Amino acid sequence: MATAFKTVEPLEYYRRFLKENCRPDGRELGEFRATTVNIGSITTADGSALVKLGNTTVICGVKAELAAPAVDSANKGYIVPNVELPSLCSTRFRSGPPGEEAQAASQFIADVIENSQMIAKEDLCIANGKLAWVLYCDIICLDYDGNILDASAFALLAALKNVQLPSVTINQETGLSEVNLKQKNPLIIRKHPVATSFAIFDDTLLIVDPTAEEEDLATGTVTIVTDDEDRLCSVHKPGGSPLSGAKLQDCITRAITRHKEVKKLIDKVIKSVKPQ
After folding, report:
1. Do 168 and 179 form a contact (C-beta atoms < 8 A)?
2. d(CA 110, CA 80)
3. Around Cβ 48, how many Cβ atoms within 10 Å?
């Protein structure tokens, strides 16, 4: 009977749970799904991480290449993020060029990198005006069940923390680059941005870490990104229900708490993996 009611009236079905301050999956409104992270899963990448947020599963691989820096920023390298939502992760996505949601997620990740200053692009420069690192960050969703932004940002951060770049010098006589694969150094991560997403129900009620079903039924979503110093890096709100100042402040407070949990999880995993 409950299954039939959920099929016919999904929103009303959810509302009955929300009135009791819980959700159909048993979580409280402010409760996140179980979160796990595994680093170094892709041996062919320079850094990688697999993140599970409930059923949502995302993998991030970082590939480093050498290139000449841009003329207008001769002392900076590049970071190129890309989020893929292939048809294998959910029936809602189709094969072919990236859809609107994948493009929006890629732009969100690019904004997080830029706004948080997690990596100073100057640190990626090897020789001013001559040589710099390009970090290609490919984030692929393997199983989609909502909240792709949180999972993608988490996977990116964990993968970058896993990156080991070989030592590169330029031979003064030949002018060619020389790569020493035996001497590798980790990336300097200056900030640790963490995203926390909320779904808005009936224009007033906030629930954290929404599933795909909850996102579809919600009247809006908002994603808050904070860093180590409890600083607000960005607020991503693609339309939907407006948020009052008090509600937004509540979101920021919860996001700061979530940041501490995620940072502790990453630190624990990094510590448990011994460098090669």
Report:
1. yes
2. 8
3. 23
Rounded CA Rg of the chain: 21
Measured between alpha carbons, how far is 207 from 18 in angstroms, rounded to an integer? Answer: 9
Buried-state track 84-122, b at ≥16 Cβ within 10 A, e below 16: bbbeebbeebeeeebeebbebbbebbbebbebbebbebe
For 74-96, how does the pLDDT look when each residue is reduced to its tens digit (9 = 90+)? 899 999 999 999 999 999 999 88
Question: What is d(CA 85, CA 99) in angstroms, rounded to the nearest whole number?
Answer: 8
Q: How far apart are the first and last CA of the chain?
A: 56
DSSP alpha helix (H) spans, 209-244 = 212-217
Longest dimension (CA), the chain: 80
The amino acid that residue 38 corresponds to is N
| pTM greater than 0.85 (yes/no) | yes
